[in-house]
């Protein structure tokens, strides 16, 4: 499955599938810079609800991380998904993806650009297994 190309005005979901650092006050300046850069590319960033809930919350709630990813795939106005950061425990998301028929169908029926690095490699492998080309 190949997602569509991005164009000016497209919405891009920001998810945290690994570390919850994006929700910490000491990193807000980097979040603001990332949002600014996406807007300079004429894209509209959409911070998914759980992405900014902090390190402690996301470490203990991998299902919330996957819920953001699922909602991004289901939202027809979102054209791409960017993982905010790497980490060390994205592997905890895999059971909530591979054992979830709704998630599998969402990816197959709504292919989108998916980008991430480092720890997110496990999510790339999972999405590739489903059939989605990722970056």
Topology:
Layout: E1 11-15, H1 28-40, E2 44-47, H2 55-60, H3 62-74, E3 78-83, H4 94-98, H5 101-109, E4 113-115, H6 121-130
Parallel strand pairs: 1-2, 1-3, 3-4
Order of helices and strands: EHEHHEHHEH
Choose one word for the global shape: globular
Give the N-terminus to C-terminus distance in angstroms: 13 Å
Q: What Rg is obtained from the alpha carbons, in whole angstroms?
A: 14 Å
Percent in strands: 5-15%
Query: Which spans of ≥5 residues are poorly predicted at pLDDT below 50?
Result: none
Mean pLDDT: 94
The class by helix and strand makeup works out as: alpha/beta
Helix content: 40-55%
Short description:
By secondary structure, this protein is of the alpha/beta class. The protein contains six helices and four strands, in the order βαβααβααβα. The two termini are 13 Å apart.
Task: Tell me what you see in this structure.
- With 135 residues, this protein is an alpha/beta fold.
- Helices cover 41% and strands 13% of the residues.
- The chain contains 6 helices and 4 strands, in the order E-H-E-H-H-E-H-H-E-H.
- Strands 2-1-3-4 form a 4-stranded parallel sheet, sandwiched between helices.
- It is globular and about 35 Å long.
List the main descriptive attributes of the protein structure presented here.
135 residues, alpha/beta, 4-stranded parallel sheet, globular
């Amino acid at each position: 499955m190949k997602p569509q190309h991005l164009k000016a005005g497209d919405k891009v979901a920001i998810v945290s599938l690994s570390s919850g650092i994006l929700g910490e006050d000491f990193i807000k300046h980097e979040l603001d810079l990332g949002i600014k850069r996406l807007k300079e590319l004429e894209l509209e960033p959409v911070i998914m609800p759980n992405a900014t809930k902090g390190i402690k919350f996301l470490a203990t709630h991998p299902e919330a991380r996957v819920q953001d990813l699922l909602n991004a795939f289901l939202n027809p106005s979102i054209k791409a998904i960017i993982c905010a950061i790497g980490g060390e425990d994205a592997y905890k998301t895999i059971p909530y993806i591979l054992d979830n028929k709704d998630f599998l169908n969402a990816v197959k029926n709504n292919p989108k650009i998916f980008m991430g690095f480092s720890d997110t490699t496990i999510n790339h492998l999972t999405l590739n297994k489903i059939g989605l080309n990722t970056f």
